[in-house]
Amino acid sequence: MSRYPVTWRFLDALEAVAAFLWPRRMHRYTGVLLLVPAVALVGLLVAGLFQMGDSSLRLLDTETFEQSEDYSLANYRDLIEKPTYFTVLWRSTWAAALVTVLTLLLGFPYAYAMVRTRSAWRRKALLVSLFLPFFIGQVVRAYGWLVVLGKTGLVNTLLGTLGLGPFKMIYTFPSLVFGLVQYMLPFAVLLLAPAITAIDEELESASESLGAGGWRTLWHVVLPLARPGLVASAVVVFTLTLTDYAMPVVLGGGTNDFIANAVYDAFFRISDNGLGSALALTLVVFGSTVVAVMLGLLGAGTLGMRGRGNAR
Amino acid sequence: MRLSPRAVFGAVIAFNLVALALPTLVILGASFTEGNMIVFPPEGFSLKWYDKVLGSEPLREAFLRSLWVSLICTAAGVPAGAFAALAMARFRLRFAGALQIYLLLPFTIPLIASGIGLMLFFGEIGILGDLWPVGIACAVINLPFMIWAVLASVNGLDPDLENAAANCGAPPLQTFLTVTLPAVMPGVITGGLLLFVLAFNEFLVSLLLTDANTVTLPVSIYNSIRSIITPDLAAVSVVYIAVAGVAIVLLDRLVGLEVFLRGK
Amino acid sequence: MDKRRPFDRRDFLLGSAAAAATLPFGGLAFAAAPAKPKELVVRVWGGEWKDAIDPGASKSFTANTGIAIRYDETEDNELQPKLWAAIKQKRRPPVHVNWDTTTNATKSALRNMGEDLSDLSNLGGLLPVAKPLGFDKWPLVNVYSYVYVLAYSQTAFPNGAPDSWSVMLDPKYKGRIALYNDGIGFHPAAQVAGGGKVADIPKNMKACWDFIGKLKAQKPLLGEDPDFTNWFQKGEIDLACTIVTNARGAKKNGVKVAWTVPKEGAKMDTDALWVPKGLPANEVYWAKQYVNHALSKEAQQVWCDGLGLPGVNPNITPPADMVGDPAYPTKDEDFKRLIRVPNKIQVENEKEWFGRFKQIMQG
Could you give the ipTM of this predicted complex? Predict the structure, then answer.
C-alpha cells in the first residue's frame, strides 16, 4: 500500500484553511476578492486626485504663503487668462503630434522586420537593441544625447572634420522632438509588434502573387490589418509625449517647457500649490479627452483589457 | 529607380539601431575617460571614475534605496496585478467596463498628475518622507503593465484545463496552484521583471516623493546632471546599463523576449 | 521621626534627592552638550558653491565635532515647498541647515518656519548687513553679499568688457546668452537697460518687461548655477547674467571668461543660513552650532574665498584675484554702481516677476 505523500497532506491542510477562510457560498465573490488589492492601489491614485482637486480651489496668499481657507475658481481663471499656459499647452500638443507621427514612421519598419524576419538571431538582436535603451531610463539617455549633439560633441566634431558647423543642435525644439522620438520608439514598437504578429503572412503573399507590388501590399493589406497596433501606439506615444517632464528639462534649454514642467514650476518655483493642482487637473482632463476621442474614433486596439472570459 | 519597401525599411532600421545605441555607447565610453569632463571619444583610458563611484557612499546608499523601492513595488504590484488579471479573465464581473477604465487610470492619468496627487495625499496622511511609500507609488503607476502581462498568459490558458482538473476531483486551491499558476507564470515573471526595472528607473515620481534623506539613484543622477558634471556620472549610468543587461538576459532565459511579439 | 525638629537627616536626604533630580535641567550650562547626531544635512547649490562651503565650513566643523556633513543639492526653490509641507505636517524636515537666498529665507521666516538663531556666539562682531531686516530676532542670518554681473567670454570680446547690458540684444550673440531660469538678478538691470528707473520698481516695470521681450528674440538659454559654468566651459555661450562665482568657476578651469558691472548697474543681494523647525532638540543645537561655525573668521575666510564674494565677518580679507574687482565691493564708489532692492519688495513681488519672466520666455 502506498503512503499518502507529504505534499498531498500539506496541500490538503492548505485546502482546509482556504475552505475555512473562504467558504463555498462565497465562491461566486472570488472575483471581487481577487480585485481588492488592485482596486486599493488605484484607490490611492484617486485619493490623490481628490487632494489635487481640493488644493486647486484654494488661493495662495502672497504674504503668508498659506493656502486660503475658502474655495474659489480663481486659479482656473488664471490659467485661462494668462497666455503662457496656453502657449505651453499648444507646444506640448504640437510636439506630441509630431513625435507620434515620426515615431510611427520610424517604428513600423522596425516592428515589421522584427516580426517577419526568419532569423531568430536577428529577431533577438532587434529585441535587445530595443529593450536595452528602454531599461536604461530617460534621464541618462537624454544626457547621452546632450553629449552627442553638443557644441563640442561627437556629431559636431565629425562635421568639423568635413569643414562644417559647429551647429547648434541641443536646447532647441527640434532637438527636443528628436530626443522624444528616440525615447518613444521602444514603446511604439512593442505595441505594434503584437498587431503585426496577428497578420497572417499568407495574406501578404497572396496579395503579391496577385500582382501587387511591395508598397501596395503594405498600404492596402498590412497597414489596415495592423490598425489596432497603430492606434495603440499612437495613443500611448501621444499621451506620454504630451505629459513628459524630463526631456524638456534636459534637452529643452529652459525655453521649451511642456505642461508637466509648468506644473512642476507652479509647485516648486513659486510655491503655488493651488495653481499647480489646477494645471495638473486640466492636463488630466485634456489628456483623457484626447485619448477618449482617439479611442472612440479608432477602437481600443491592443490596449484593451478584456479577458477572453470564462464565467464561473 | 523604384525603392522597394525592403530597402527603405532597411535604411530606417539601420538608422534606428544607430540612434538607439548611440547614447548608451557614448555614456559607456565616456566613463573610461582620463580627463575631467564627459567627452566622447574619451581622453585616455582609466578606471578611476568607477573607483570613485564604487567608493562613494551616497551613491551606494541611493543604489540600495532604489533596490528597496523596486522590491516593494514588485511585492505589492505582482499579487495585485496578477489577481486582478485572473479576476477579469476568469470571472464574470458586473461593471466590467467601468472596472477596465478604473484599472487603466494609472495609465491614462499623466505621470506628473499622479505623482503630484500621491505627493499631496501621502503628505496629508503623514507618510511622505519615508521610502516604502515610493515603492507603493511605483506599484500603483505601473499596475496596468502587470495586468497586461498576466492577461496575455491567462488568455492563452484553455479554461477547460481547469475544468478538467476539477472534474478529476481537485479542490479549488489545488487547481489554482497546480494548473492555473504554472500556466500564468510566464506572464507573472514578465510582469514582475518589468515592474522591477520600471521601479528601479522611476524618475519623476521619485523626484516628487523623495528628499535628501531618501533620494533614489535616478534622482541622484538627475541632481548630478543639473550640477557640475564629471565622468563619475557616466560611470553611475553604466550601472543602469548593467542592470538593464541583466534584466534582459533573465527575461530571455525565463520567458523569452519574443513573448512581447505575441498579442493578448 | 521626630516632627518637632524643623530639619533632620531624612529631610536632608529628601532635599538632596530633589536637588539631584533637578541637576540635569539646572545644570545644563555645566553639563555636556546634547547628543551628537551622526550627520547634518545642509542644502547647498552645486558646483562651485558646494566646493567652497566644504573646505570652508564643513570640513573644519567635522574635525571639531566629529559630525559628518551631507549635502542636499535640491534647488532652493524646489526644497522650499517640501520643507514647508514637512514642517506643517509635523514631519521631520529634510535638511538641518538651509543655505538659501535671503528672499526665500525671509519667506520662510514670515511663516515662522525657522529656529531663532539669536543666541549664536559669533553674531556679535558681524557687519550690519548680516542682520535680517524687519525681524527683531534672528530667524536667519545673512552670510555674504554678491553681485549679478555681466559675464562674458573673452574670445568673443577681444577688445575688453562690453559697457552696457544692451550688448545682449546684439544679433551676433543670438542663442549664446544665458540667464537664470526665472530671471532672478536680471529684472532691475533690465529695468535700467530698458530705459526705466530703479525707483519705479515695483510700481512701473514696463521698461524691464520691454527689454526682456526684446531679449526673447535672442533665444537665451535658461538654467541654474552649475549650468553657467558648464556652458562657458563647453563654449555654448558668450554672455550671461549670473553670480560672479559661476563665471569665476569656469575661469579657474581655464576658460577665458571675465565679468563686468555695466554702466546701468547690477543687482546686489545676500544669501542666508537658517535652521528649519521640527527637528529633534539635540539636532537643532548642533545645526545651530554649524551655522555659528560658518560665521567664524576661519570658516568665512575659506568659504568666501572659494566663492569670491564679500562675507559678513569683518575680519576676512578678499582673495587675491578679487581685489579691486567691482563685483567685490569694498569702497563707496563700488556700492554706488550696484542696485539693491529691499527684501520686503522682493518677497512680495518675486512670484509675479518670475512668472512674467517665464511667460515672456516661453511665449
Answer: 0.84
